[in-house]
Amino acid sequence: MHYFTEQGATHAEVLAKVRSKYGSGSDVLISSQREVPVKSVWGKLTRQTQWEIHGALLEKNKTPAKKKDETLDNKLKLLEEMLNRTSFKKTEERPIAEAPLVRELKPQLGKEFVSTKPDAVDTEKVRRLEAEVAELRQELKRKGAPDLELVAERELLSLYDHCCSMGFSHAFAESLAMRTRAAVAPTDFKLRKKIHEKARTILAEHVRTTNSGSQRIVTLVGPTGAGKTTTLVKLAARLSVREKRKVELITIDNYRIAATEQLKVYARIMDIDCRVCRQPQELQEAIEQSRAEFILIDTSGSSPANRDFLLKQRAFFEAIHTQHEIETHLVIPALTRLQDAKLLFDRFEIFNYSRIIISKIDESYSFAPVVELADTWNKPFSMLTNGQDVAKDWLDADRMIIADALLKKWLDEIDPIERK
Q1: pLDDT recorded at residue 106
Q2: What does each C-alpha distance from 201 to 22, 148, 229, 418 come to in angstroms?
Q3: What distance in Å separates the CA atoms of residue 163 and residue 178, rounded to the nearest whole number?
């Protein structure tokens, strides 16, 4: 007895395959029919399923199975060979007797295509293959996957998979992959370096950047632990030490005594003034009395859910907003997830922040969610920080640097399993 297992995208397809290979007589026994997951990488990504039939063939009527199992990848590889040589659309418009498609492909499609004469049966197989692939594409699209070729464009699918693993939403990752596809020549669909070059440029178009210190009064806001105080000191060091500008530090953080003392220590090292303001009126008076070119204001960290505390913080700036322009930066840690980033962007909007600083980029695999949200909110980046070294661990935001940081891992990737 010969046992067999056949698979197909639909139940009808795999059943037809069994009948085609082994017949439908009494010597063909079917033991089970079930729907199983597709084991390919793309199948796992989309949670795609296929039908599987197990059975047996009585020894006296044993029929050898075809060498090539028409799995999803094999079908699409066959389709790729066809698409590389001619257009299906033109084939359908010509009479069967005039179509060169079957004659051209027969030498390359296996023993079943030995004849060199046009055959209605062969043409029907091609058309059936077209219909099956079209059905597969519709199913993938329904499940939210990008509308890409599964064979000729594997690198584009890999790019899409990488962007999702970095933290971009599926919609953003699909948009990036599709825009890259449109910018890359079809002959380069299998060249990762070519795809990376275009994807890098397209991703950079989603990144806005600006400078810091364009106004006399600069303040940093953000959640607890975002690194606001350290970032403020780095900005002060750049202005006072490197650019030789007169800078003054002011803190309205009345809840963390250690943070206030730490800021005073940094101020003494840089030989600049540092004040503590406990009331909005004190902040207003300090600004009026200051002769500094730049006034950098440190704030208390707060949970975005604590709206009452955020409103108390905002009251400090409302006291001076009518007379002074304030440059407000929202500091967000690089490891912030997409849903958390959405909450931060929304809740801290009461401070009317105009710039984004990504902190602690050395502590995170990716800061893709922050980049996506900044694009959605039309907010530019002003600075990136990556450590505790005040003099070195920061750099001005640059769109190409940000794009490189998110896509370079994919360009250098050897094994996709490394992402998992």
Answers
A1: 39
A2: 54, 20, 33, 25
A3: 12
Find the length of the chain.
420
What is the 3 state secondary structure string of 342-384? HHHHHHHHHHCCCEEEEECHHHCCCCHHHHHHHHHCCCCEEEE
Are 261 and 364 within one domain? yes
Burial label for 291, CB within 10 Å (0-12, 13-18, 19+), is exposed
The DSSP line for 132-179 is HHHHHHHHHHHTT-----TTTTHHHHHHHHHHHHHT--HHHHHHHHHH
Cβ pair 53, 71 in contact under 8 A? no
pLDDT for the residue numbered 89: 43
Domain check: are 254 and 392 in the same one?
Answer: yes
The stretches in the chain having pLDDT less than 50 are 61-63, 65-70, 85-118, 150-151, 415, 417-420
Neighbours of 168 (CB within 10 A): 23
Residues 34 and 86 reside in one and the same domain: no
Angle subtended by helix axes 338-347 and 368-376, to nearest 10 = 40
Give the domain-ending residue among 108, 125, 145: 145
Question: What sign does the dihedral 211-214-216-222 (CA atoms) show?
Answer: negative
Q: Domains in the chain: how many in total?
A: 4
Q: Given this model, what pLDDT does residue 81 score?
A: 57
Is 273 found in the same domain as 156?
no
Domain extent, residue 14, equals 2-61
pLDDT score for 347: 93
Residue 110 in any domain: the answer is yes
Whether the full predicted model's pTM is greater than 0.90, yes or no, is no
Extract the tokens encoding 312.
């108390």
pLDDT at 124 (0 to 100): 73
